Amino acid sequence: MARQATGAAKREAVAEVVRDEKFNARRIELAEAALETLGELGFARTSLREIAQNSAFTHGVFHYYFSDKLDLICCCVRHYKAKCVTRYDDVVVTATSRDELTEGFLARLAATLQNEARMHRLWYDLRSQAMFEAAFRKDVLEIDKSLEAMIWRIASRYAEFGGKRPASSPAALYALFDGLFQSALLKHLAGDKAAIPELLDEVRRLLPTVC
Amino acid sequence: MARQATGAAKREAVAEVVRDEKFNARRIELAEAALETLGELGFARTSLREIAQNSAFTHGVFHYYFSDKLDLICCCVRHYKAKCVTRYDDVVVTATSRDELTEGFLARLAATLQNEARMHRLWYDLRSQAMFEAAFRKDVLEIDKSLEAMIWRIASRYAEFGGKRPASSPAALYALFDGLFQSALLKHLAGDKAAIPELLDEVRRLLPTVC
DNA sequence: TTTTTACCTTGACAACTGTCAAGCTCCGGG
DNA sequence: CCCGGAGCTTGACAGTTGTCAAGGTAAAAA
């Protein structure tokens, strides 16, 4: 009987794990749909109904999978994080020289700005929201840290190729690149065709002086 | 009769100018009230009624002085600009040495972060909004340019004291300081007591290397 | 097969939004 | 004195919002 009970308990536990996984998978699916609309409209103008309309579901589902709107958006932020903090890592790994690293980095930078502008303006939007809404702060600060580390990996590798060490702190380096990217993104979205090449030039000039 | 007509026309023109000035003064007064609420709640959560409730007026007035909500917020942005782009100018003018400039700059930086955090998080919020709302872009890009020039004045003066020229472009310098400030602001708002001193340390270390 | 459960839809709710028209008040000019 | 209009308030409007409960459906469990 003890064996039977244990068997039943095990089966139940497995079933629960499966259920949880399905639940979580749907959460992420919904968060991904939400990210689409958020990237299009921004935090201020995005409603649950609008999100639902741009997805395969109806607005009620979101309340089944998320406790409220903040919960949904927090999930979006966390999911976004996983996607973006490894964006340049393969370049860092595969590059075998300064030039290769530079060109790989710049190419990906340009592609990101060109193809994922909407996702990135959303990131800046949500980071600003975190200054007002405490619920976002923890996740946003974590992402910021991850991005800082990502930049630091690039800079360290670059310096390494020159037998040097980066000339500034991780915080300053991240601030610099983030600031440049943000500015370029705004100009790009405003229709400035020169925004991307100007960013590339600036970064190309800057890399040897900071690393 | 010609003289009479001219006189009447003149009087009328003067009256119109006075009326326009009064109109504009009230617009600014309302924009200032709106800035208070915007700084408290952020763009996403601020309604006209909320703005009115935190002011001496009722919600209808805003429609009398502004064509719509965007018009009001654009006016806010423009008014904010006039305030903030001259924040460090007297330090630049009065400083007579590198140290004096550094300490003046750092002191004002700390004071700004401490006392005007709400206004600055609003700036970052609205700059992000500009990535979604085209109506904001022109003013935001203008302010960004003014801020870049402001940083450039400080850096140039600093370099001048050392008989040098700034080592980077105005855009890169602004990106750097803006990025550092933005990061420090978020940490400060999140309750991180070390945010301000860390920013000051970072800037103190950075100034001699970039100028 | 029957019953239960997970999942999703539908519709309703109260609150809130930007907008605006009607009307009030009070002051300066006739 | 009164009268017109500038300046402001009030209240209403249509639409939108987050939230949630009631109900349906299909798959799993019994």
From TrEMBL, chains A, B:
Pfam families: TetR_N (PF00440). The keyword Methyltransferase does not apply. One of its GO terms (molecular function) is transcription cis-regulatory region binding. Residues 47-66 bind DNA. InterPro entries: Homeodomain-like_sf (IPR009057), HTH-type_TetR-like_transc_reg (IPR050109), HTH_TetR (IPR001647). SUPFAM superfamilies: Homeodomain-like. Keywords: DNA-binding, Transcription, Transcription regulation. Residues 24-84 form the HTH tetR-type domain. The keyword ATP-binding does not apply. This is TetR family transcriptional regulator.
